[in-house]
Amino acid sequence: MIDLNNRLAERREIIDRELDRLLSPSDSPAATVEQAMHYAVMGGGKRLRPILVLESCLACGGDYSAALAPAAAIEMIHTYSLVHDDLPAMDDDDLRRGRATTHKMFGEAMAILAGDGLLTLAFRILASEPAGDAFAAARCRAVTLVSESAGVTGMVGGQVADLEAEGKPLRQDRLEWIHRHKTGALLRASVELGAILAGAGDNDLEVLRRYCDALGLSFQISDDVLDCTATAAVLGKTPGKDQQAGKTTYPALLGLEGARAEAERQAGAAEEALEALPGDTTVLAGLARYTLTRTS
To answer: Which phi and psi (to 5°) does residue 100 adopt?
Structure first.
């Protein structure tokens, strides 16, 4: 039986090495924005999305080394969204991953450009890695999948709905829609990407979609709970921002205990979905439990 914490630590180390390689600043005239990109990405983080890419690839019988650069690209897209989300025009936050946000370190203009740079670099990687004719079709599918998940039909659309919902009461189904798009879309793309790179069939992809739909909700509900209960020192970002912005959250709708129970239910659904996969899903199942026990 694996030690989940050790496995996650090993995966983070591998992913961080790849990110550092891909984002090493040059001495070109664009060095400042490259430094901002490197700062934004290399400031820690759970690396949940790239870990999902690697582990879903393994669960579908693939070689995770083929998925490593695309996994790093997913983390770049996630980080770009955080850099822009922290800007004064959005959530206006000074703290991310336990240190100053990118715009506080480099200025707003450079933070915007750093986010733009991360997003476009990510798609260059997805379009070219893993290299070779054998992966040509998978690369095309990857670009389509991630662009849909990161754009207006996914993460960006969820962010729009979240901004427009500030100060307004929401029903649970509307809140769930926001979370499935704002947070869940990129999580789901991470799982599907790993499966595509492993050459998974439609049945396995559908199983992983069900898994990640539940995982994404469990993760976001737990995030809402932590925003109410954790300190900045533990959380690594400013707590209580959702309440200050007048956002509807799961604790606001269901109460803290009700929200925790719903997160537990979703994590159980994620684990149950994995039973239909033939490969080793130990880590994927462990990540479903991790959404309930994480502290940041």
So the answer is: -60, 140
pLDDT digits (tens, 9 = 90+) for 185-198: 999 999 999 999 99
CATH of the domain at 283: 1.10.600.10
Full residue range of the structural domain in which residue 207 is found: 4-293
Kindly state the tokens that stand for 66.
């083929």
Angle between helices 172-182 and 155-164 (to 10 degrees): 140
Between the CA of residue 130 and those of 55, 135, 168, 197, what are the distances in Å? 17, 6, 45, 9
| Upper half-sphere CA count for residue 89 (Cβ side, 13 Å) | 8
Q: In whole angstroms, what is the distance from residue 76 CA to residue 41 CA? A: 7
pLDDT tens-digit readout, 8-56: 999 999 999 999 999 998 889 999 999 999 999 998 889 999 999 999 9
**Model pTM score:** 0.91
Q: What is the dihedral of CA 36, 43, 116, 148, to 10 degrees?
A: 170
Domain count within the chain:
1
pLDDT(150) > 90: yes
Q: What rounded mean pLDDT belongs to the chain?
A: 91
